[in-house]
Amino acid sequence: MRATGIGGMPGDDLREAFHVVLGEVGELPFVPELPERGATAGMIGRSLAMLEGLHVDLQPAGWRLTTGESRDHRRAASLLAQDLDVVEELLPASTQVLKQQVAGPWTLAATVERPRGDRLLADHGARRELAESLAEGISHHISDLRRRAPHASFVIQVDEPALPAVLAGAVPTASGFGKHRRVYASDADRLLRMITEAIARSGAASIVHCCASRVPVELLAGAGFGAISFDAALVGPDEQWAAAFEAGVDLWPGAISTTAALREPADVRRRVDRWFADLGFDDAAYGDRTVITPACGLASASPDAARASLTLAQQAASTV
């Protein structure tokens, strides 16, 4: 069993954050996201920096598509490149796997606005174009990672925190007085498959992270993700999780609450073991297919608390 983090880390020093990651979860390190540096460094800004053929700028209401390059977009791309320079410098040659996070097409569509206002979610053509751009950008990003770390393989974590709201028709319109129409699972599947297929063609593994109480497990498993990362305190083990696991989808339980409910490695490990036992599996079935993580990103935690959460995840994963 291994451990890793979700992506977000506190502070504004990538070098320091990556040192912590390598020191605590070095078997499966991740490229940290440091949103304290501003919107261009957060989950959405960093993901938009990967787009190919589309441009965005930052407005008071958030990110918006534009017809040409903007200073904000260039800043986001520059920060990402600088971060990868640090990763390339510090990543040990012995590292076998590196994880990179990117916001998924539905979370971006529910967040980014069209040039004339309202979310991309409202426009079928625009959201498809966004997914195509993102898929191409991820492919190029994996090539860049491989050039920088030729000794490693790569896991691309697709963050979809907004997907349950998209499926439920719960994403507010720009006015705040209405909701966008729900997206059906078949439509959601098409865009998600663009991403998983692009990742697979690039020779990387895909995982999806969704820290909601109603994770669309069947949809995510069917879209081609190799693993699902989730908040173990919000979801209970049921038939859909068992079916996904039996179909070959690995499960990454977020077993460490950011509220510090459990602080002992043995307690965390018992939580994970109990969760799988309730699915009907023993440790021989899931031990090599499980990665323990914090429940969500650690950007809002103190540096000491973030380090402690990663340490706890690693210790729990190593507990026999």
How are the strands of the biggest sheet laid out side by side? 1-9-8-7-6-5-4
User: What CATH first level would be assigned?
Assistant: Alpha Beta
Query: pLDDT below 50 for ≥5 consecutive residues: which ranges?
Result: none
Report helical residue fraction. Answer: 40-55%
The major β-sheet equals: 7 strands, parallel
Helix/strand-derived class?
alpha/beta
Secondary structure: number of strands: 9
The percent range for strand residues is 5-15%
Distance between the termini: 10 Å
Number of domains: 1
Based on CA atoms alone, the radius of gyration comes out at 19 Å
CATH architecture: Alpha-Beta Barrel
Furnish the topology, listing elements before pairings.
Blueprint: E1 2-3, H1 14-24, H2 43-48, E2 55-59, E3 62-66, H3 71-90, E4 97-103, H4 105-109, H5 124-148, E5 153-159, H6 163-168, H7 185-201, E6 205-209, H8 217-222, E7 227-231, H9 239-246, E8 250-256, H10 265-279, H11 283-286, E9 291-294, H12 303-318
Parallel strand pairs: 1-9, 4-5, 5-6, 6-7, 7-8, 8-9
Antiparallel strand pairs: 2-3
Helix pairs in contact: 1-3, 5-7, 10-12
How would you characterize the overall build of this protein?
The protein is α/β, with parallel strands linked by helices. It has a single domain, classed as Alpha-Beta Barrel (TIM Barrel). 43% of the residues lie in helices and 15% in strands. The protein has a seven-stranded parallel β-sheet. The protein has a two-stranded antiparallel ribbon with strand order 2-3. α1 packs across α3, α5 runs parallel beside α7 and α10 packs across α12. It is globular, with a radius of gyration of 19 Å.
